[in-house]
Amino acid sequence: MDEFDVVVIGAGPGGYVAAIRSAQLGKKTAIIDKRWLGGVCLNVGCIPSKSLLKNADVAHTLRERGREFGFSIENLQLDFAAAVKRSRQVSDRLTRGVGFLMKKNNITVYMGEARFSSRQSIKVTTKDGAVEELKARDFIIATGSTPISIPGVSIDGVNVLTYQEAILQEKLPQSVVIIGAGAIGLEFATIWSAYGSRVTLVEMLPRIAPLEDEEISAELDKAFSKRGITCLTETRVLAVETTSTGVRVTTSSKDGESVIEAEQALVAIGFRPNSQNLDLEKVGVELTERKHIKVNDKLTTSVPNIWAVGDVTGKLLLAHVASAQGIRCAEAIGGREVIPLDYNMVPRATYSHPQVASFGYTETQARELGKAVKVGKFPFQPNGKALGLGDYGGFVKLVVDEDNGNILGAHLIGPEVSELLPELTLAQANGLTAADIARNVHAHPTLSEVLMEVAEVVEGKAVHL
Questions:
Q1: What is the pLDDT of residues 371-429, one digit of tens each?
Q2: How many Cβ atoms from other residues are within 10 Å of residue 90's Cβ?
Q3: Contact in structure between 220 and 413 (CB atoms under 8 Å)
Q4: Mean residue pLDDT across the chain
């Protein structure tokens, strides 16, 4: 039996970061994954999708905006398979980097399926059936989550897909129905429509990007309509049938039932935690009703030496949240002081076109909490850098506590807004106000000037509005 101080189960953004930090703190560390280093994010999620989105941006410019930029291309040929291959190269490079980091930090890697045999030991079964037993003082569960489907809808990976099949297929669907208008649905709508696919988004809630501020959703809906994407909200999917030419999707809305024919359907409605098949009940780890692992602020479970991070905890299903949890968990095990995460104030980003980024409370949420709020909005249209880029749709919205000036939330839609968010989250976390942001000198011309401008709007001294 191999013995370690810390054993991490799952090598995604939460698990491999927790393993590295544990090793840095002097712990003898091992990590286990049944499929790949880097997890979903590096292999079939955040990283390859951003590569595809870059290709989509270029494709959209070539197809739709040549006259604006002063060029024309006859017989334009777009090779979607080449875009997918490039995304795989990007993914493979980062995955190899994780393997290098494991070696650099002397972390032992096991590829196989883990199950608890006691509170101090687990068994790892490799693909060839070999079984190894590991003993550790502490275990960190970072097994992530798996996409779910609609009851009665079968995922076949050819006509009906999850994001995993969609991100790997080299075939461009000529038409597609995307079920779910959250981040995954919005990003694939951006990719496929940029290459000329006929895209229909179906969302059962009243608006696309339903967790964002209402004004952000409205602006995104308008932008998607301009790109030829059909957005059906307050619409339920009743059935998805496979046909000889693709799929037949039956929907229901206030206008009654209707049928959409398409080549493929992408199901992007949510995830379930990978908390099964670990024998957690054997060791007494408590789960929520939805089978997420219960953790406290330090990420420990109901069993003192078993910890959990990432999607499996159900806190906030984002890669950077998993990594932040992984660092805090490793430091808690190492006896370091841990500042708990404020999940309300964690940054969120959707890499559609236009991009969406946010953190904190929406205007509606802040008012429902009884806050007296000041709201500032500033558009990208007057911004010199945005105009130069030819990408000036959208705006920044800042929600501020009127009583003390504290930033309660920010909601952005427009060019590269995911890159603008950190200034605002850093300000909020350190007690800086809109007045402080307004006083901060921003380089000109930059997109970041909109942050200064929106802060000036909140302070009642806007210059360019």
A1: 999 999 999 999 999 999 999 999 999 999 999 999 999 999 999 999 999 999 999 99
A2: 16
A3: yes
A4: 97
Judged on CB neighbours under 10 Å (0-12, 13-18, 19+), 406 is middle
Report whether 273 contacts 145 (CB < 8 A): yes
End-to-end CA distance of the chain: 68
| Domains of the chain in sequence order | 2-147+272-333 (3.50.50.60), 160-269 (3.50.50.60), 354-458 (3.30.390.30)
Residue 431's CB: how many other CB atoms inside 10 A?
Answer: 11
**Percentage above 70 pLDDT, the chain:** 100
Half-sphere exposure of 431 (CA within 13 A, CB side): 1
Q: Which residue has the tokens 């075939």?
A: 171
CB 193 within 8 A of CB 356: no
The dihedrals phi and psi of 63, each to the nearest 5 degrees, come to -80, -40
Q: Is the peptide bond before 48 cis (omega within 30 degrees of 0)?
A: no
189-205 residues labelled b (16+ CB within 10 A) or e (exposed): bbbbbbbbbbbbbbbbe
Residue type (1 letter), 152: G
Distance of CA 205 to the CA centre of its chain: 19
| Residues with a known catalytic role | 444
| 92-111 pLDDT, tens digit each | 999 999 999 999 999 999 99
**In degrees, to the nearest 5, what angle opens at C-alpha 324 toward C-alphas 320 and 328?**
170
| Range with top average pLDDT, 63-72, 147-156, 186-195 | 186-195
| Residue 127: per-residue pLDDT | 86
Cα–Cα dist 346/309, whole Å: 15
CA distance 374 to 400: 5
**Per-residue tokens: 310:** 């990432």
CA–CA dist 189, 184 (Å, integer) = 9
Reduce the DSSP state of residue 96 to 3 states and report it. Answer: helix
pLDDT of residue 440: 96
Decide if 171 contacts 38 (C-beta within 8 A): no
Q: What are 265's strand-pairing partners?
A: 160, 177
Residue 1 predicted with pLDDT over 80:
no
**Residue 334 structure tokens:** 């190492």
